[in-house]
Amino acid sequence: MLRALGSESIYSFKSVMSCKMQNKQPNKSTLTPFALLWILGLLFVSMGIAADEENVLEKSPIGFFTKLALAHGVQDVKDVFQTDRYKPEKPSSTFQSDIDTIYMVFDLLPRENPVHIIGQLYLEKGDGRASDKLLYDREVYLTTSQDSGFLELGRPEEGWIPGNYKVKIHLGEKVTEASQLGTLRFKVVPPA
User: Of 70, 94, 155, 177, which is most buried by a Cβ count within 10 Å?
Assistant: First the structure.
């Protein structure tokens, strides 16, 4: 019963599309209620996926990174296989404006190819700024044997202005719309 209903509905959908392509008006028997619901369902699903994609880019990246943290420093340690592993020193999401460098420390999933990781540092909109301001970008290249690394986010030319910052994280040799994995946010406050 379902199979017959489903194939009949698809046939009706094909008929409607054929009529539209020939600039004809479909007759009322061609457009079944099931076909209308199917079309509306696809529309709502596609709208939901587009909304989720926008939100994903503004969240911390997951999946490719097994660990990811912003920190005041980085510590180099050897694992059981004597390969370099980097550990965050004093991880935080708030930093004082007199800090020289903020470190983005991460561990990656094992992979078969080398990888470029790019971090773009932005001063977020606010305090009279209408939009986010790109300060600079930093890049690190990891070979297949490296599962741990870090990016150094040094003091911008204007210094660390108290406010909200974000780091857009990209994967690849250059920044494109499709290369962004996610975003990390942190705050800079005046020195105590």
Answer: 70
Distance CA 169, CA 58 (A): 10
Q: pLDDT tens-digit profile of 87-115?
A: 999 999 999 999 999 999 999 888 888 99
Residues facing residue 124 across a β-bridge:
none
| Token pair for 31 | 């457009």
Helix (H) or strand (E) holding 53: helix 33-57
| Dist CA 3 CA 10 (whole Å) | 11
CA distances from 42 to 8, 15, 31, 122, 185 (A): 18, 18, 16, 36, 34
Rounded to the nearest 5°, which phi and psi values hold at 9? -65, -40
pTM of the model: 0.68
Q: Is 88 helix (H, G, I), strand (E, B) or coil?
A: strand
